[in-house]
Write a structure and sequence with these properties.
By secondary structure, this protein is of the alpha+beta class. It has three helices and four strands, in the order E-E-H-H-H-E-E.
């Protein structure tokens, strides 16, 4: 089994309105996203997963989120990092079924979420 991962960084604002702490207020982060896809064996060109395609798909998704208010873009009241990771996994795995893992971290390094299917 081969596992191939790519990363990207984007900046965005969000709020978790039902949260009891400061997270309920509008705030922003630089989000670091790591996406992994798996391949059972080597195919054409001795490649397990098309790295270029994986990277392009990730950039397409993060490009729609970059410098935006995520609650509005995704249409939710409470935009947690967990929700964001789940959204990205859903978007990517619909286009590339080999995607099995998404990790989203704030670049401040205080918080990371990993979701796997």
């Amino acid at each position: 089994m081969y596992r191939v991962c790519v990363s990207d960084v984007f900046s965005a604002a969000h709020s978790i309105r039902s949260h009891g702490g400061v997270g309920r207020y509008l705030h922003g982060h630089d989000f670091r996203v790591r996406v992994c896809a798996s391949g059972a064996g080597l195919g054409t060109g001795n490649i397990a997963v098309d790295l270029k395609l994986l990277e392009e798909l990730l950039k397409e998704v993060t490009g729609r989120l970059d410098h935006r208010y995520l609650n509005e873009v995704l249409g939710v009241e409470d935009l947690s990092t967990e929700y964001l990771a789940t959204y990205i996994l859903s978007e990517l795995s619909a286009r590339l079924p080999e995607v099995y893992l998404v990790e989203v971290c704030t670049t401040e390094g205080r918080y990371c979420v990993e979701v796997e299917r």
